Amino acid sequence: MSVVGWEHMTRALRLPVVPLLVLCLTAGCQLGDDDDSSGSEGSASVQPLACGATELALPANWATELTAAGFTKCAAPFGVIIGAVEAVPDAYVATAARIVAELIDPDEDGQANDPAVLAYLAQGREVWLPMPANEQLWTGGVEEQLGAALGAYGIMIPEWWMGSFSSSGPDEHARAVMVEEIIHAFTQFGYGLAYPEVFGVNDWSSVVGRETQAAQCSWWQHPENSCPGVPSQGGDCSDPSCDVTEFYHQVLVLRAGMTPGWFGIGFPQDRTALESLLSDEIKAAMDNPAHHQLREPLGFDYGSP
Ligand SMILES: [Ca+2]
Ligand 1 centre from 255 Cα, in Å? Predict the structure, then answer.
């Protein structure tokens, strides 16, 4: 079960949310009052630039804080902020950015398919995606320092989960880690906030929350949680913000025809088996075009001709 290794580390990042006031100070409280009403917050470019590059249009003080902490490479597809330390190869940043862009704009017309969700995700209003490469530095203070300075949640995509950097670019495992963390960020801080009764993860009352509870100890068990006869392997993922988010990631990815980076205990490993276990309610919610859920495998080639 070493494949769940990266999960054990994300827990702290999903705990209580930064007060809105702090977000307002740093991001200008601009939900719903964006200058650009087209649904594309800035460029869809996926290539990393220096974090201070004007093309990225990061919120005030972000470039300064990121650069001071060693996060020198940034991408901001549709305004969703990815910040990487210098050691992260450009290809890795660009792959993460392509995943973000494809989820925001699956039809690749340059416009966000769901501007309401993007409004939560863009400009670090709720969340950003740090790509650190030195675990000791990151956990030894940088994570905390940036959290306080930026006033946004960091859902990290670190080298120590992806594996050593390769000159040929991210391998399948590294991409699965990126997909999982980005989907986590999108579910918890995008869809869960825009459609709380369907995708909310802060309690068990949403459609996905109730589905998680219905599957619990039957065909879903997070390895950090206990079920009768199957004790926790350590850790604690009993809070809905952990358990529901992790469950839904596997449902979404497998149902879209991809393979998640790991499987929960009892979780079906093929799409047909999953389909027979899911309730009609969650399937209808996921298939509702108004909810803009991933329905087919990612191409990892956003912006390619
Ligand atoms: Ca679009």
Answer: 21
3-class DSSP state of 74: strand
> Under a CB-based contact definition with an 8 Å cutoff, are residues 166 and 187 in contact?
no
CA of 145 to the centre of ligand 1 (A): 35
C-alpha torsion angle, residues 158, 159, 162, 165 (rounded to 10): 150
**In terms of pTM, does the model score above 0.85?**
yes
Going from N- to C-terminal start, the domains of the chain cover: 2-196, 204-291
- Ligand 1 centroid distance, CA of 105 (Å): 4
Residue type at position 41:
E
Helix (H) or strand (E) holding 226: none
β-strand pairing of 127-131 with 49-50: unpaired
DSSP string, 255-277: HTT---SS--TT--SSHHHHHHH
CA atoms in the 13 A half-sphere facing the CB of 157:
33
pLDDT tens digits, 15-62: 444 444 444 444 444 444 444 444 567 777 899 999 999 999 999 999
Structure tokens at 253: 């990815």
Beta strands in 97-186 (DSSP E): 127-131, 153-154
Work out the end-to-end distance of the chain between its first and last CA atoms, rounded to an integer number of angstroms. Answer: 39
β-sheet bridge partners, residue 128: 154
Q: Measured in angstroms, how far is the CA atom of residue 165 from the centroid of ligand 1?
A: 31
At position 102, the amino acid (one-letter code) is: E
